[in-house]
Design a protein that fits this description.
With 176 residues, this protein is mostly beta strands. It is built from one helix and 14 strands; from the N terminus they run E-E-E-E-E-E-E-E-E-E-E-H-E-E-E. The longest helix is centred in the last third of the chain and has 8 residues.
Length: 176
């Protein structure tokens, strides 16, 4: 569009260390998503020293998630925090994985045959009428969350939850 100014900002970076029980935690998947555009995610893994780094992030507020457990069938947990990334600067964010150790097991029931189901456990009270609304809610909170998959009604588990109030949402897909 003629006459519309285009403003380019200098990018920033984010670095930190992931620890569990005070010790550096290697090989942890860490993701960064803008709170304004939660569908876009950048991913790195921690090194042997538990350190991670994101380069070239646009200035914005980001939700940073460290993932515990890499098998969706066995259950995964996420610990998230928010951080502000400034223009031409490096933000620091250390993440301490202090889980509560509680496992929630959910069995989905339906009058129809169940195919594949995805369970999300979110900290606080969440109301979502669709998968899209659920994904938007996931991008808003901080703290521990759980996610798991279920095939044909088998129990799904969310692990490492800390005490508190949670909402559970299941997205059920038809068998075909």
């Amino acid at each position: 569009i003629e006459g519309l100014p285009l403003v380019l900002l200098k990018v920033g970076a984010l670095e930190g260390t992931v620890r569990k029980a005070g010790a550096a935690e290697p090989d942890v998947a860490v993701s960064a998503s803008s709170v304004n555009f939660p569908a876009v995610s950048f991913n790195v893994a921690t090194g042997p020293d538990g350190r991670y780094r994101f380069d070239r992030l646009a200035p914005d507020t980001y939700r940073i998630k460290a993932m515990l457990g890499g098998n969706p069938m066995a259950g995964m947990s996420f610990f998230s925090k928010q951080v502000e990334i400034g223009e031409d600067s490096t933000a620091k964010l250390d993440i301490d994985l202090e889980s509560g150790g509680t496992t929630l097991t959910v069995t989905m029931k339906s009058s129809e045959d169940l195919g594949f189901s995805r369970l999300s456990i979110l900290k606080g009270v969440v109301s979502a009428a669709s998968a899209r609304e659920l994904e938007a809610s996931v991008g808003q909170g901080t703290g521990f969350e759980g996610a798991s998959m279920s095939i044909r009604g088998q129990p799904a588990q969310a692990k490492n939850l800390s005490p508190g109030r949670y909402s559970g949402c299941a997205i059920v897909y038809p068998p075909q």
